[in-house]
Design brief:
Elements (H helix, E strand, L loop, with lengths): L4 H24 L7 H20 L5 H30 L1
Helix pairs in contact: 1-2, 1-3, 2-3
Length: 91
């Protein structure tokens, strides 16, 4: 079971802004903002299944789900943190 964890971390780091962009586009298409964190998590889990399945020969479902939740939450946190910083700078 030799695989590169750094490739997995880089792929997960790349997924975060992609998920952020998709959720922002959905919010622009009149999706209620209250669903944004849930959609981020679901997109994160789905994307991680694709990425982890491509990088690891027989991935653990639990680990994949946890990685996906982490990516979705970081996309959600990146959006809210950026909004707060920009909101403070505008004052």
């Amino acid at each position: 079971m030799n695989f590169d964890f750094s490739a997995l971390l880089v792929a997960s780091g790349i997924l975060t802004p992609i998920i952020l962009g998709i959720v922002s586009a959905l919010k622009s298409a009149h999706m209620p903002s209250t669903y944004a964190p849930l959609v981020s998590i679901l997109l994160g889990v789905g994307a991680e299944f694709l990425v982890v399945g491509a990088l690891i020969p027989s991935p653990s479902v639990g680990v994949t789900v946890l990685l996906g939740i982490g990516v979705g939450l970081s996309a959600s946190g990146l959006y809210s943190g950026g909004s707060k910083i920009l909101g403070t700078m505008k004052r």
